[in-house]
Amino acid sequence: MNATRMLTAAATVATIIMGPAIAHAQEDLPPSVAARKAQMSLYAFNLGQLGAMAKGEVDYDADAATAAASNLVKLSSLAAGPMWVPGTDTESIDGTRALPALWENMADVVEKATAVNEAAVAMEAAAGESLEGLQGAMAGLGQACGSCHKAYREPN
Amino acid sequence: MRWITTLVVLIALVIGLGLWITRPKADGEAMVSGLTPDAAHGGVVFTASGCASCHMAEGATGADKLILAGGQAFPSQFGTFHAPNISSDPEAGIGDWSALDMWNALHNGTSPDGSHYYPVLPYASYIHLEPQDVVDLHAYMTTLPADDTPSKPHDVSFPFNIRASLGGWKMLFLREDWQMDGDLTPELERGRELVEAMGHCAECHTPRNALGGLKSGSDWLSGAPNPAGRGTFPNLVELNWSDADLVEYFTSGFTPEFDSAGGHMALVVENLAQLPEEDRAAVAAYIQALPLE
Protein backbone atom coordinates (compact mmCIF):
# COMPACT_ATOMS: atom_id res chain seq x y z
CA MET A 1 0.00 0.00 0.00
CA ASN A 2 1.66 3.22 -1.13
CA ALA A 3 1.26 6.60 0.51
CA THR A 4 -1.37 7.83 -1.96
CA ARG A 5 -3.58 4.80 -1.42
CA MET A 6 -3.23 5.13 2.35
CA LEU A 7 -4.28 8.76 2.21
CA THR A 8 -7.23 7.90 -0.02
CA ALA A 9 -8.31 5.17 2.38
CA ALA A 10 -8.00 7.51 5.35
CA ALA A 11 -9.97 10.19 3.56
CA THR A 12 -12.69 7.68 2.67
CA VAL A 13 -12.97 6.50 6.26
CA ALA A 14 -13.05 10.10 7.46
CA THR A 15 -15.79 10.95 4.98
CA ILE A 16 -17.90 7.99 6.08
CA ILE A 17 -17.53 8.95 9.75
CA MET A 18 -17.74 12.72 9.43
CA GLY A 19 -20.07 13.05 6.43
CA PRO A 20 -23.38 12.69 8.28
CA ALA A 21 -22.18 15.03 11.01
CA ILE A 22 -21.29 17.75 8.49
CA ALA A 23 -24.57 17.30 6.63
CA HIS A 24 -26.47 17.43 9.92
CA ALA A 25 -24.69 20.60 11.03
CA GLN A 26 -25.67 22.43 7.86
CA GLU A 27 -29.27 21.20 7.97
CA ASP A 28 -29.89 22.73 4.56
CA LEU A 29 -30.41 26.16 6.12
CA PRO A 30 -30.85 29.06 3.71
CA PRO A 31 -27.51 30.88 3.41
CA SER A 32 -29.01 34.00 5.01
CA VAL A 33 -30.00 32.04 8.14
CA ALA A 34 -26.62 30.28 8.30
CA ALA A 35 -24.95 33.69 7.98
CA ARG A 36 -26.88 35.34 10.81
CA LYS A 37 -26.26 32.31 13.03
CA ALA A 38 -22.55 32.64 12.24
CA GLN A 39 -22.74 36.29 13.24
CA MET A 40 -24.39 35.29 16.55
CA SER A 41 -21.62 32.72 17.13
CA LEU A 42 -19.01 35.41 16.66
CA TYR A 43 -20.83 37.64 19.12
CA ALA A 44 -20.92 34.80 21.65
CA PHE A 45 -17.22 33.99 21.15
CA ASN A 46 -16.10 37.55 21.69
CA LEU A 47 -18.49 38.09 24.61
CA GLY A 48 -16.99 34.91 26.05
CA GLN A 49 -13.50 36.49 26.03
CA LEU A 50 -14.85 39.46 27.98
CA GLY A 51 -17.10 37.37 30.19
CA ALA A 52 -14.28 35.08 31.31
CA MET A 53 -12.46 38.17 32.63
CA ALA A 54 -15.64 39.60 34.16
CA LYS A 55 -16.23 36.36 36.06
CA GLY A 56 -12.60 36.10 37.16
CA GLU A 57 -12.03 32.86 35.23
CA VAL A 58 -9.02 34.38 33.46
CA ASP A 59 -6.80 37.33 34.41
CA TYR A 60 -7.83 40.75 33.17
CA ASP A 61 -5.87 41.74 30.04
CA ALA A 62 -6.61 45.26 28.77
CA ASP A 63 -5.37 44.59 25.21
CA ALA A 64 -7.26 41.32 24.80
CA ALA A 65 -10.40 42.91 26.27
CA THR A 66 -10.18 45.87 23.91
CA ALA A 67 -9.66 43.56 20.94
CA ALA A 68 -12.73 41.50 21.80
CA ALA A 69 -14.82 44.62 22.36
CA SER A 70 -13.66 46.06 19.01
CA ASN A 71 -14.83 42.85 17.35
CA LEU A 72 -18.26 43.38 18.92
CA VAL A 73 -18.36 46.90 17.51
CA LYS A 74 -17.50 45.57 14.04
CA LEU A 75 -20.02 42.74 14.28
CA SER A 76 -22.75 45.16 15.27
CA SER A 77 -21.85 47.40 12.30
CA LEU A 78 -22.41 44.76 9.59
CA ALA A 79 -25.06 45.55 7.00
CA ALA A 80 -27.62 43.06 8.27
CA GLY A 81 -30.47 43.29 5.74
CA PRO A 82 -29.49 40.36 3.49
CA MET A 83 -29.18 38.06 6.54
CA TRP A 84 -32.79 38.73 7.52
CA VAL A 85 -34.65 38.16 4.25
CA PRO A 86 -38.44 37.77 4.49
CA GLY A 87 -39.68 34.19 4.60
CA THR A 88 -37.00 32.98 7.04
CA ASP A 89 -39.14 33.10 10.23
CA THR A 90 -40.39 30.30 12.48
CA GLU A 91 -43.65 30.05 10.52
CA SER A 92 -41.87 29.60 7.20
CA ILE A 93 -38.88 27.35 7.87
CA ASP A 94 -37.31 24.97 10.39
CA GLY A 95 -34.00 25.72 12.05
CA THR A 96 -34.69 29.29 13.17
CA ARG A 97 -36.22 30.88 16.27
CA ALA A 98 -36.79 34.28 14.62
CA LEU A 99 -40.48 35.13 15.09
CA PRO A 100 -42.58 36.65 12.28
CA ALA A 101 -43.06 39.72 14.50
CA LEU A 102 -39.45 40.69 13.72
CA TRP A 103 -40.39 41.46 10.12
CA GLU A 104 -43.57 43.24 11.20
CA ASN A 105 -41.71 45.71 13.44
CA MET A 106 -38.61 46.59 11.43
CA ALA A 107 -38.34 50.13 12.79
CA ASP A 108 -38.18 48.75 16.35
CA VAL A 109 -35.69 46.05 15.29
CA VAL A 110 -33.40 48.69 13.79
CA GLU A 111 -33.67 50.72 17.00
CA LYS A 112 -32.74 47.68 19.08
CA ALA A 113 -29.86 46.82 16.74
CA THR A 114 -28.58 50.38 17.10
CA ALA A 115 -28.70 49.96 20.87
CA VAL A 116 -26.50 46.84 20.55
CA ASN A 117 -23.95 48.87 18.59
CA GLU A 118 -24.03 51.64 21.21
CA ALA A 119 -23.52 49.10 24.02
CA ALA A 120 -20.58 47.59 22.10
CA VAL A 121 -19.03 51.05 21.66
CA ALA A 122 -19.45 51.63 25.41
CA MET A 123 -17.73 48.30 26.09
CA GLU A 124 -14.88 49.20 23.73
CA ALA A 125 -14.31 52.37 25.74
CA ALA A 126 -14.56 50.61 29.11
CA ALA A 127 -12.82 47.30 28.42
CA GLY A 128 -9.29 48.71 28.21
CA GLU A 129 -9.70 50.99 31.23
CA SER A 130 -10.25 48.57 34.10
CA LEU A 131 -11.80 45.28 35.08
CA GLU A 132 -14.54 47.14 36.97
CA GLY A 133 -15.37 49.13 33.84
CA LEU A 134 -15.56 45.92 31.81
CA GLN A 135 -17.81 44.28 34.39
CA GLY A 136 -20.10 47.29 34.42
CA ALA A 137 -20.42 47.35 30.63
CA MET A 138 -21.47 43.68 30.48
CA ALA A 139 -24.90 44.51 31.89
CA GLY A 140 -25.55 47.09 29.17
CA LEU A 141 -24.57 44.63 26.46
CA GLY A 142 -26.71 41.92 28.00
CA GLN A 143 -29.72 44.20 28.10
CA ALA A 144 -29.22 45.27 24.50
CA CYS A 145 -28.95 41.66 23.27
CA GLY A 146 -31.82 40.57 25.49
CA SER A 147 -34.25 43.25 24.39
CA CYS A 148 -34.32 41.83 20.86
CA HIS A 149 -34.33 38.20 22.04
CA LYS A 150 -37.16 38.96 24.45
CA ALA A 151 -39.34 40.46 21.75
CA TYR A 152 -38.48 38.54 18.59
CA ARG A 153 -37.01 35.15 19.43
CA GLU A 154 -39.10 32.08 20.16
CA PRO A 155 -38.44 30.83 23.71
CA ASN A 156 -36.67 27.48 23.99
CA MET B 1 -91.45 12.29 48.26
CA ARG B 2 -90.09 12.94 51.74
CA TRP B 3 -86.80 11.11 51.03
CA ILE B 4 -86.15 13.41 48.06
CA THR B 5 -86.56 16.45 50.29
CA THR B 6 -84.27 14.86 52.85
CA LEU B 7 -81.65 14.12 50.17
CA VAL B 8 -81.77 17.66 48.77
CA VAL B 9 -81.41 19.11 52.25
CA LEU B 10 -78.49 16.75 52.99
CA ILE B 11 -76.67 17.65 49.74
CA ALA B 12 -77.22 21.34 50.42
CA LEU B 13 -75.79 20.86 53.91
CA VAL B 14 -72.70 19.04 52.62
CA ILE B 15 -72.07 21.72 49.96
CA GLY B 16 -72.68 24.44 52.52
CA LEU B 17 -70.28 22.82 54.97
CA GLY B 18 -67.63 22.47 52.24
CA LEU B 19 -68.01 26.11 51.24
CA TRP B 20 -67.83 27.18 54.86
CA ILE B 21 -64.66 25.15 55.51
CA THR B 22 -62.97 26.46 52.35
CA ARG B 23 -64.31 30.05 52.63
CA PRO B 24 -61.87 32.85 51.80
CA LYS B 25 -59.67 33.51 54.81
CA ALA B 26 -58.80 37.05 55.84
CA ASP B 27 -56.68 38.35 58.69
CA GLY B 28 -57.64 41.30 60.86
CA GLU B 29 -55.99 44.68 61.46
CA ALA B 30 -53.69 43.27 64.16
CA MET B 31 -51.59 41.65 61.44
CA VAL B 32 -50.25 44.98 60.18
CA SER B 33 -51.00 47.49 62.94
CA GLY B 34 -48.01 49.05 64.64
CA LEU B 35 -45.73 48.50 61.62
CA THR B 36 -44.10 51.65 60.25
CA PRO B 37 -44.02 51.65 56.44
CA ASP B 38 -40.64 52.01 54.71
CA ALA B 39 -41.39 52.84 51.07
CA ALA B 40 -37.73 52.55 50.03
CA HIS B 41 -37.57 48.95 51.24
CA GLY B 42 -40.97 48.45 49.61
CA GLY B 43 -39.32 49.32 46.30
CA VAL B 44 -36.84 46.46 46.80
CA VAL B 45 -39.70 44.08 47.63
CA PHE B 46 -41.53 45.30 44.51
CA THR B 47 -38.52 44.67 42.26
CA ALA B 48 -37.59 41.33 43.82
CA SER B 49 -41.22 40.18 43.58
CA GLY B 50 -41.45 41.05 39.88
CA CYS B 51 -44.83 42.81 40.24
CA ALA B 52 -44.29 45.00 37.18
CA SER B 53 -43.22 42.12 34.93
CA CYS B 54 -46.80 40.80 34.88
CA HIS B 55 -48.84 43.92 35.70
CA MET B 56 -47.25 46.45 33.30
CA ALA B 57 -48.71 46.78 29.81
CA GLU B 58 -47.36 44.21 27.33
CA GLY B 59 -43.88 45.16 26.16
CA ALA B 60 -43.51 48.25 28.37
CA THR B 61 -39.93 49.45 28.89
CA GLY B 62 -38.13 52.00 31.05
CA ALA B 63 -40.30 54.19 33.27
CA ASP B 64 -43.46 52.78 31.61
CA LYS B 65 -42.80 49.53 33.48
CA LEU B 66 -44.03 51.32 36.61
CA ILE B 67 -47.47 52.00 35.08
CA LEU B 68 -49.26 48.91 36.35
CA ALA B 69 -52.20 49.09 33.94
CA GLY B 70 -52.50 45.30 33.53
CA GLY B 71 -53.76 43.51 30.44
CA GLN B 72 -51.05 40.90 29.78
CA ALA B 73 -52.50 37.47 28.99
CA PHE B 74 -51.36 34.28 30.74
CA PRO B 75 -52.59 31.14 28.98
CA SER B 76 -52.84 27.94 31.03
CA GLN B 77 -54.58 24.55 30.90
CA PHE B 78 -57.43 26.12 32.90
CA GLY B 79 -57.99 29.07 30.57
CA THR B 80 -56.43 32.47 29.89
CA PHE B 81 -55.89 34.86 32.78
CA HIS B 82 -55.44 38.60 32.35
CA ALA B 83 -53.32 40.58 34.78
CA PRO B 84 -55.52 43.26 36.37
CA ASN B 85 -54.76 46.96 36.79
CA ILE B 86 -52.93 47.33 40.12
CA SER B 87 -51.94 50.98 39.63
CA SER B 88 -52.69 53.58 42.28
CA ASP B 89 -55.93 54.61 40.52
CA PRO B 90 -58.64 54.18 43.19
CA GLU B 91 -61.29 53.08 40.66
CA ALA B 92 -59.49 51.07 37.97
CA GLY B 93 -56.56 50.02 40.15
CA ILE B 94 -55.94 49.36 43.83
CA GLY B 95 -55.37 52.92 45.04
CA ASP B 96 -58.09 52.51 47.63
CA TRP B 97 -56.50 49.43 49.22
CA SER B 98 -55.21 49.46 52.78
CA ALA B 99 -52.00 47.66 53.72
CA LEU B 100 -54.23 44.99 55.26
CA ASP B 101 -56.06 44.50 51.93
CA MET B 102 -52.69 43.92 50.30
CA TRP B 103 -51.67 41.48 53.02
CA ASN B 104 -54.87 39.47 52.56
CA ALA B 105 -54.39 39.40 48.78
CA LEU B 106 -50.77 38.28 48.92
CA HIS B 107 -50.87 36.05 52.00
CA ASN B 108 -54.37 34.58 51.87
CA GLY B 109 -55.27 34.98 48.19
CA THR B 110 -58.39 36.85 49.30
CA SER B 111 -59.71 40.05 47.70
CA PRO B 112 -61.00 43.04 49.71
CA ASP B 113 -64.58 41.98 48.87
CA GLY B 114 -63.87 38.55 50.36
CA SER B 115 -63.55 36.28 47.33
CA HIS B 116 -60.77 33.90 46.29
CA TYR B 117 -58.10 35.03 43.84
CA TYR B 118 -56.86 32.55 41.26
CA PRO B 119 -53.37 31.34 42.13
CA VAL B 120 -52.09 32.90 38.89
CA LEU B 121 -51.46 35.68 41.42
CA PRO B 122 -48.60 33.70 43.00
CA TYR B 123 -49.83 33.91 46.59
CA ALA B 124 -48.60 30.34 47.09
CA SER B 125 -45.16 32.03 47.01
CA TYR B 126 -46.05 35.46 48.45
CA ILE B 127 -47.56 33.69 51.48
CA HIS B 128 -43.94 33.64 52.75
CA LEU B 129 -43.65 37.45 52.78
CA GLU B 130 -43.34 39.08 56.19
CA PRO B 131 -46.07 41.53 57.27
CA GLN B 132 -43.42 44.28 57.28
CA ASP B 133 -42.55 43.49 53.63
CA VAL B 134 -46.19 43.87 52.62
CA VAL B 135 -46.67 47.12 54.57
CA ASP B 136 -43.54 48.51 52.88
CA LEU B 137 -44.67 47.29 49.46
CA HIS B 138 -48.05 48.95 49.96
CA ALA B 139 -46.38 52.25 50.87
CA TYR B 140 -44.15 52.06 47.77
CA MET B 141 -46.98 51.21 45.37
CA THR B 142 -49.02 54.24 46.42
CA THR B 143 -46.15 56.35 45.00
CA LEU B 144 -46.50 54.80 41.52
CA PRO B 145 -48.57 56.45 38.75
CA ALA B 146 -52.34 55.99 38.47
CA ASP B 147 -53.79 54.59 35.24
CA ASP B 148 -57.50 54.30 34.45
CA THR B 149 -57.37 51.33 32.02
CA PRO B 150 -60.15 48.93 33.11
CA SER B 151 -59.06 45.39 34.06
CA LYS B 152 -59.95 42.66 31.55
CA PRO B 153 -61.97 39.69 32.84
CA HIS B 154 -60.29 36.27 32.90
CA ASP B 155 -61.27 33.86 30.14
CA VAL B 156 -61.66 30.69 32.19
CA SER B 157 -64.17 27.96 31.43
CA PHE B 158 -66.38 25.78 33.64
CA PRO B 159 -65.71 24.41 36.25
CA PHE B 160 -62.65 26.57 36.88
CA ASN B 161 -64.72 29.75 36.60
CA ILE B 162 -66.33 28.93 39.96
CA ARG B 163 -64.09 30.80 42.35
CA ALA B 164 -65.55 28.98 45.37
CA SER B 165 -63.69 25.85 44.17
CA LEU B 166 -60.39 27.67 44.81
CA GLY B 167 -60.97 27.21 48.54
CA GLY B 168 -60.36 23.50 47.97
CA TRP B 169 -57.21 24.28 45.98
CA LYS B 170 -55.88 26.44 48.79
CA MET B 171 -56.66 23.74 51.35
CA LEU B 172 -54.67 21.23 49.30
CA PHE B 173 -51.71 23.34 48.19
CA LEU B 174 -51.36 26.62 50.12
CA ARG B 175 -48.64 26.12 52.74
CA GLU B 176 -46.80 28.54 55.01
CA ASP B 177 -43.85 26.13 55.42
CA TRP B 178 -40.66 26.82 53.48
CA GLN B 179 -39.51 24.20 51.00
CA MET B 180 -35.85 24.51 52.02
CA ASP B 181 -35.72 24.06 55.78
CA GLY B 182 -33.23 23.24 58.50
CA ASP B 183 -30.28 25.32 59.70
CA LEU B 184 -29.47 27.80 56.95
CA THR B 185 -26.63 30.32 56.65
CA PRO B 186 -27.77 33.96 56.53
CA GLU B 187 -26.98 33.96 52.80
CA LEU B 188 -29.14 30.90 52.16
CA GLU B 189 -31.94 32.40 54.26
CA ARG B 190 -31.88 35.51 52.07
CA GLY B 191 -31.67 33.32 48.98
CA ARG B 192 -34.69 31.37 50.16
CA GLU B 193 -36.65 34.57 50.73
CA LEU B 194 -35.79 35.77 47.22
CA VAL B 195 -36.39 32.43 45.47
CA GLU B 196 -39.34 30.93 47.35
CA ALA B 197 -41.21 34.10 48.42
CA MET B 198 -40.54 37.22 46.36
CA GLY B 199 -39.03 35.85 43.15
CA HIS B 200 -41.69 33.10 42.97
CA CYS B 201 -39.26 31.09 40.82
CA ALA B 202 -41.10 27.83 41.45
CA GLU B 203 -44.26 29.08 39.74
CA CYS B 204 -42.56 28.45 36.39
CA HIS B 205 -39.58 26.22 37.19
CA THR B 206 -41.37 23.55 39.29
CA PRO B 207 -43.62 20.88 37.73
CA ARG B 208 -47.27 20.77 38.84
CA ASN B 209 -49.69 17.92 39.54
CA ALA B 210 -53.01 17.49 37.67
CA LEU B 211 -54.75 20.03 39.90
CA GLY B 212 -52.08 22.68 39.43
CA GLY B 213 -50.34 22.19 42.79
CA LEU B 214 -46.54 22.51 42.85
CA LYS B 215 -44.58 19.30 43.38
CA SER B 216 -41.98 19.35 46.14
CA GLY B 217 -38.83 17.55 47.34
CA SER B 218 -36.50 16.52 44.51
CA ASP B 219 -39.05 17.81 41.96
CA TRP B 220 -38.73 21.36 43.38
CA LEU B 221 -37.35 23.70 40.65
CA SER B 222 -36.65 20.71 38.38
CA GLY B 223 -38.15 22.39 35.32
CA ALA B 224 -41.62 22.26 33.77
CA PRO B 225 -43.43 22.62 30.46
CA ASN B 226 -44.48 26.13 29.45
CA PRO B 227 -48.28 26.34 29.83
CA ALA B 228 -48.31 29.04 27.13
CA GLY B 229 -47.40 26.44 24.51
CA ARG B 230 -44.09 25.31 23.07
CA GLY B 231 -40.93 24.99 25.09
CA THR B 232 -40.02 24.31 28.70
CA PHE B 233 -38.78 26.18 31.75
CA PRO B 234 -35.25 24.94 32.51
CA ASN B 235 -34.38 22.44 35.22
CA LEU B 236 -32.44 24.42 37.86
CA VAL B 237 -31.40 21.29 39.79
CA GLU B 238 -29.26 19.98 36.92
CA LEU B 239 -28.04 23.32 35.66
CA ASN B 240 -24.35 22.80 36.54
CA TRP B 241 -23.44 26.49 36.31
CA SER B 242 -20.74 28.00 38.54
CA ASP B 243 -21.56 30.68 41.12
CA ALA B 244 -19.97 33.25 38.79
CA ASP B 245 -22.06 31.97 35.85
CA LEU B 246 -25.27 32.43 37.86
CA VAL B 247 -24.36 35.90 39.10
CA GLU B 248 -23.36 36.99 35.58
CA TYR B 249 -26.70 35.69 34.25
CA PHE B 250 -28.60 37.60 36.94
CA THR B 251 -26.63 40.77 36.14
CA SER B 252 -26.33 40.86 32.34
CA GLY B 253 -28.59 38.00 31.24
CA PHE B 254 -25.70 36.19 29.54
CA THR B 255 -25.64 32.40 29.85
CA PRO B 256 -22.27 30.58 30.14
CA GLU B 257 -22.46 30.15 26.33
CA PHE B 258 -23.08 33.90 25.99
CA ASP B 259 -26.54 33.47 24.68
CA SER B 260 -28.92 35.91 26.38
CA ALA B 261 -32.08 35.44 28.40
CA GLY B 262 -35.31 35.63 26.43
CA GLY B 263 -39.07 35.54 27.08
CA HIS B 264 -40.26 36.30 30.60
CA MET B 265 -36.85 35.37 32.02
CA ALA B 266 -35.43 38.50 30.38
CA LEU B 267 -37.85 40.48 32.57
CA VAL B 268 -36.77 38.52 35.64
CA VAL B 269 -33.14 39.34 34.86
CA GLU B 270 -34.01 43.05 34.51
CA ASN B 271 -35.40 42.86 38.07
CA LEU B 272 -32.52 40.84 39.53
CA ALA B 273 -30.02 43.25 37.94
CA GLN B 274 -31.49 46.08 40.04
CA LEU B 275 -30.98 44.24 43.34
CA PRO B 276 -27.79 44.53 45.40
CA GLU B 277 -24.92 42.25 44.35
CA GLU B 278 -25.28 40.23 47.59
CA ASP B 279 -28.87 39.39 46.70
CA ARG B 280 -27.85 37.93 43.34
CA ALA B 281 -25.16 35.91 45.12
CA ALA B 282 -27.79 34.71 47.62
CA VAL B 283 -30.08 33.47 44.84
CA ALA B 284 -27.08 31.71 43.28
CA ALA B 285 -26.27 30.07 46.64
CA TYR B 286 -29.84 28.80 46.94
CA ILE B 287 -29.75 27.28 43.44
CA GLN B 288 -26.39 25.64 44.15
CA ALA B 289 -27.91 24.06 47.26
CA LEU B 290 -30.49 22.15 45.19
CA PRO B 291 -31.85 19.48 45.01
CA LEU B 292 -34.01 19.44 48.11
CA GLU B 293 -34.62 16.16 49.95
Report what the structure shows.
The complex is a heterodimer of chains A (156) and B (293). By secondary structure, chain A is an all-alpha fold. Chain A has a single domain (29-152), classed as Cytochrome c/b562 (Four Helix Bundle (Hemerythrin (Met), subunit A)), CATH 1.20.120. In chain A, 71% of the residues lie in helices and 0% in strands. Chain A has helices at residues 3-26, 31-54, 62-75, 101-104, 106-127, 131-152. Chain B folds into 2 domains: 26-173; 186-288, Cytochrome Bc1 Complex, Chain D, domain 2 (Orthogonal Bundle). Helix content of chain B is 41%, strand content 5%. Chain B is built from 12 helices and 5 strands. In chain B, the strands form 2 sheets. Chain B has a 3-stranded antiparallel beta sheet with strand order 1-2-3, with no helix packed on it. In chain B, β1 and β2 (79-82) form a beta hairpin. Chain B is globular. Chain B starts with a helix and ends in a 5-residue tail after the last helix. The mean pLDDT of chain B is 94. The interface between A and B is medium-sized, with 25 and 28 residues.
Parts with pLDDT < 50 across at least 5 consecutive residues of chain A: 19-25
Gross morphology of chain B: globular
Please outline the major beta sheet of chain A: none
Number of helices of chain B: 12
Largest interface: A-B, 25 and 28 residues
Task: Find the structural class of chain A using helix and strand composition.
Answer: mainly alpha
Determine the N-to-C terminus distance of chain B.
57 Å
Strand order of the largest sheet of chain B: 1-2-3
Give the low-pLDDT segments of chain B. Answer: none
The mean pLDDT of chain A is: 88
| Average residue-wise pLDDT of chain B | 94
Annotation, overall tally of beta strands of chain A: 0
Number of domains of chain B: 2
- Whole-number tally of structural domains of chain A: 1
